[in-house]
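[INFO] parsing input record for Lipase
[DEBUG] input buffer:
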Amino acid sequence: MARPVAVVVVVVVAAFLAGLLTSEIAAEIAQNSAHFYNLGRRRLPQQSLCLELIEPSGYSCSEHKIQTKDGYLLGLQRVSSRSGDLRTQLGPPVLLQHGLFMAGDAWFLNSPEESMGFVLADQGFDVWVGNVRGTRWSHGHISLSEDDKNFWDWSWQELAEYDLAEMIHHIYSITNSKVFIVGHSQGTIMSLAALTQPDIAEIVEAAALLCPISYLEHITAKFVLRMVNMHLDQMILAMGIHELNFRSDWGVNLLDSICDGHVDCNDLLTSITGKNCCFNNTRVDFYLDYEPHPTSTKNLHHLFQMIRKGTFSKYDYGILKNLKLYGQLKPPSFDLGLIPKSLPLLMAYGGNDDLADVEDFRHTLKELQSTPELVYLENYGHIDFIVSVKAKEDLHDRVVGFFRSWGKSSSS
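[DEBUG] output buffer:
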C-alpha cells in the first residue's frame, strides 16, 4: 500500500475508533497501556522458534516445513523433554494449535513448569507445534508474496480445512499414530470444524479445547462488540487492507493515533478478552517480543460475521458468490453433530472469558453427540488458559490425565 493511502487509513480508522470508545469503555481500559502501545516498536524474533524459545530452555527441538493443498508453507516444530531425544521419542503425538494473533510460541512463553508445551514434553508426549499461514514462524507460499493481497485471501475456514488438516495428516504419516490435539480459542474453531470431516476425525485420538468457540453470538467484550456493530472489519477491507499486522508501519501508527490523546489504552487486552486472574504482569515485555502475529482482515471479517449472525458457518461472500461457491444462498454450517460420538473431548472454559461466552459454549455442547469432560475455571479469562502462572495445577495436569486415560497411542 502506498504511504499516502496508509496515512489516510490510519487517520480515518483512528478517528473512527476514538469515536467508538465512550467514557464507559475508556474507563475499562485504564491500567497497563504502555505495553500494548509500544508493541510495534519491540524487536521481532530473528531465528527459528526452536532456537529462540525452546532449545534455550534445554529441550530438543527440530524444525519442519509442510505445504498445504493451496500452496502455503507452514512451520512445524517437534519437541521432546529435557531428558529425552527426538530420535527415540516414543510417547503419543500431541499437536498444539494456537489462537488468533498468536503462533506456536504462545505455548512456551512462561517457565517450563508453567507452559503447556514444556509440560507435555516433560510428561513424555511427542509435542508438535502448529503455526498457521501468515504467522512469523511459517514460510510464505510457493508462488504468492506476502505483499500480494491474494496471499491474505483466507479466514479460519481455510486454516481448518487446509492448515490444520495438513498438520494432522503430516504428523500421522511421520509417527504412524493417532494424534492428540490441544487448541486454544481460534485453534478450537479450527479443530471443531476439521473434526466434522471423517478423514480427520479418524486419525485424531482425542482433543482438549481451551476456551472452546464455535458460536460467538453472546460475546461480552465491549470493545470488540463496538467494532462489530460499527462494521469496522468491512471498513478496513474496503480501504484495501488485507493483512492485519500491528507491527507494520500502519499498525503502529494506528495504535499511536488511538492511544495518544484519544483514549487511555491501558489494559486494552482486558477490554478485549476479559479479566485475566493469573496473568504475570512482570513478563508482559517478554510476551510482546513475540505477540501479536499477523492475521488476515478476511479472517477478522469472518469472525465478526459469526458474532452478528450467531452462526457457525463458512465465510459469507454474499448471495451471488455463495451460489457460485456453495450452491446455496447462505454459506453452509459446520455440523457439530458430525464429530464422532466416540471421539473423546475435554473442554476447558473460564468464568471471566468475554470471548468464549458460557452461553455460546452451552450451545456448542447441545450440538455435540458426545458428552465432553469439562473443566470450569471460575476466575480465568481468555488469556489465562495460555499464560496463567497457576496453569499447571489448574489445567495442564487435567489435560495430561485426560490424554493418558485415552493414551492408546493407536497405530495403523
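[INFO] The first strand starts at residue 60 and ends at 67.
[INFO] shutting down worker
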